[in-house]
Amino acid sequence: MDDRVEDLTERVNKMALNDPKVILLGKNLYYEKYACNACHQINLKGGLIGPDLTKVGQRLKPEWIVYYLYNPKAFVIQSVEPVYKLTDREIEGLTAFLINRKEEK
Hints:
Strand content: under 5%
CATH class: Mainly Alpha
Helix content: 40-55%
CATH superfamily: Cytochrome c-like domain
Shape: globular
Number of helices: 6
CATH topology: Cytochrome Bc1 Complex, Chain D, domain 2
Radius of gyration: 13 Å
CATH architecture: Orthogonal Bundle
Order of helices and strands: HHHEEHHH
Distance between the termini: 33 Å
């Protein structure tokens, strides 16, 4: 793992990533405030510009998601992902929502 990401382990361990209220906050941020679904798909619903986030919780460690949300251009400077300057609480919520995604049938 990249040291920049690994350095976030302690911070991520303090997050309430399994708290239903935090997950709901993240869901509201994803679909309403930031409309992430305009560019990203979950379960084949959403835009096609960004990567599919259906199984992101199975593919990525929470530390990576947190790091990316703090600075989307950190790994890919040409990334079209906007830099939203999310608050710590928003990052916690979005991360909780994404890692706890369950596939809908």
